[in-house]
Design goal:
InterPro entries: START-like_dom_sf (IPR023393)
Largest sheet: 6 strands, antiparallel
Order of helices and strands: EHHEEEEEEEHE
Shape: globular
CATH architecture: 2-Layer Sandwich
Strand order of the largest sheet: 5-6-7-8-1-9
Protein name: SRPBCC family protein
Organism: Massilia cellulosiltytica
Length: about 170
């Protein structure tokens, strides 16, 4: 099974601080993922630890629910790197993946901020299909993010803001 790499970039007319708060909030994650997937965060949780505490230690086991109902995957949500206000890396064991790495970087831009999501993962089965699904899902997340903040168009990295490389 080959490793899939995907990178998406979006320009958003908001400050990096506002987008950092969004990107690390349960509300932001749930909004970006919906209505396609829901991650079942514990009740009362508002943000992932944003100060770098708990790095390398799972926050817990979280189910991915298709359309908020059907369990489709399980994640032991783990952040391995954190630069508060700028960047995080989530490397979580998933039932569906041999490996998973999601890096989000937020940088200032002339008109607000740029958000970059870099994904590197190795599906356990149906690599090309799973790769296609994950890429489309993250395109959806970026579209929701841009719409939420009434953005300008995505900064292109290949077709519609995505760049995909097979290794």
């Amino acid at each position: 099974m080959s490793t899939v790499r995907v990178q998406l970039e979006s320009s958003v007319p908001r400050s990096p601080a506002e987008l950092w708060d969004w990107s690390t909030s349960v509300e932001g994650v749930v909004t970006e993922m919906g209505p396609v997937l829901k991650l079942d965060f514990p009740e009362g949780m508002t943000h992932i630890p944003r100060d770098g505490s708990n790095l390398g230690r799972p926050l817990g086991d979280y189910r991915f629910l298709l359309f908020g109902v059907v369990p489709v995957d399980l994640s032991r949500l783990t952040f391995t790197e954190m630069e508060p206000g700028r960047r995080f890396v989530e490397q979580s064991p998933l039932l569906s993946m041999k490996s998973w790495r999601h890096e989000r970087i937020i940088t200032p831009s002339r008109d607000g901020s740029k958000i970059v999501d870099r994904l590197e993962f190795t599906p356990r089965f149906a690599g090309p299909v799973v790769g296609w699904i994950i890429e489309r899902f993250f395109r959806h997340r970026h579209a929701v993010l841009r719409k939420h903040y009434r953005e300008r168009r995505s900064v292109a990295r290949g077709e519609q803001g995505a760049q995909r490389i097979h290794a």
